[in-house]
Specification:
Layout: E1 7-12, E2 25-30, E3 37-38, H1 45-55, E4 60-65, H2 89-99, H3 109-113, H4 145-152, H5 170-182, E5 189-190, E6 201-204, H6 207-213, H7 226-235, H8 249-264, H9 278-283
Parallel strand pairs: 1-4, 4-6, 5-6
Antiparallel strand pairs: 1-2, 2-3
Protein name: DUF429 domain-containing protein
Organism: Qipengyuania vulgaris
Length: about 290
């Protein structure tokens, strides 16, 4: 598998408001070796879209840190009880982009504010009446099959229907799904799309999984220094990153995960997790590295 990928890009994503995001970081690792490299830039979401559509190096495995779909298998639909609930991932992406299409910066606020969709989400004002499968306002919300696998591995995933709290991923995932819609025909998204025999492909990543495999504990998955980063890189067999300026946890997440993708992408079992059925692939997608 490594032979078909020449580059490995990891993107730490952000759903925050504003034109440019401090929380977006992009790092690249070369299949030929060497340390991963942080592409220093004050990124906007549209910048990332442009790179992935127009400037992506050939034969690149792209890892995007967000949920590429909403839960479906648990309730039999993304939005159970709503007659217009989309049948699959690409239809969901198209719906989000259609409803929020007039928002700048790939925002998705109009989607979660839609009167027929708002009840399915928990936001800062209320927990929607359909936040759970049975209509009860309970627990941490709904989870995809891949997020259940993440939890079994020691991670603490958050529901993409949850829009509250510093660790929530709902907002970033919805903005990312708008981008995925605009990448249709340009970049396949595994496993919603089959893994192509050649060329570039995008996968969902969870940077904490990379940190776990690099010897970090779930409670210490975040790294905020070159020392911590380079200790983790050494576990993956990667050369260290030189201190070239300020580094935060977004940058270290991207750097470590780019090196991790390079170290594991050739392993066939990564592309065949046991709970990944055809139905799950087409509706919920999967997090690369989750089992």
């Amino acid at each position: 598998m490594n032979r078909r990928f020449r580059h490995f890009i990891a993107i730490d994503w952000s759903g925050a408001k504003g034109a440019r995001q401090k929380g977006i970081a992009l790092a690249i690792a070369d299949a030929g070796g060497g340390p991963p490299v942080l592409v220093r830039h004050q990124w906007s979401r549209e910048d990332v879209l442009y790179v992935l559509r127009e400037r992506l190096p050939a034969d690149t495995l792209v890892g995007l840190d967000l949920g590429i779909a909403l839960p479906n298998a648990d309730c039999g639909a993304y939005f159970p009880g709503w007659t217009h609930s989309p049948p699959d991932g690409p239809s969901l992406w198209a719906l989000i982009d259609h409803i929020a299409g007039e928002e700048t910066n790939l925002g998705a606020n109009a989607f979660v504010a839609h009167p027929e969709l708002r009840p399915y989400f928990r936001d800062g004002a209320e927990t929607g009446s359909r936040f759970g499968c049975d209509g009860a306002n309970h627990g941490r919300g709904r989870f995809r099959v891949t997020e259940q696998a993440q939890a079994a591995m020691g991670c603490k995933p958050y529901s993409n229907f949850n829009l509250v709290g510093a660790a929530q991923v709902g907002k970033s995932s919805l903005t990312g799904m708008r981008m995925l819609h605009r990448l249709r025909g340009h970049l396949p998204v595994w496993p919603v799309d089959p893994l192509p025999q050649k060329g570039s492909v995008l996968v969902e990543i969870y940077t904490s999984l990379a940190a776990l495999e690099a010897g970090r504990s779930p409670s210490k998955a975040k790294m905020r220094s070159y020392h911590e980063l380079n200790e983790a890189l050494a576990v993956l067999g990667s050369p260290p990153v030189m201190d070239t300026g300020p580094v935060d946890d977004h940058a270290t997440d991207a750097l470590l995960t780019a090196a991790w993708l390079r170290s594991v992408a050739h392993e066939p079992h990564r592309w065949n997790p046991p709970m990944l059925t055809n139905d799950v692939a087409g509706t919920e997608g999967w997090t690369f590295g989750a089992f």
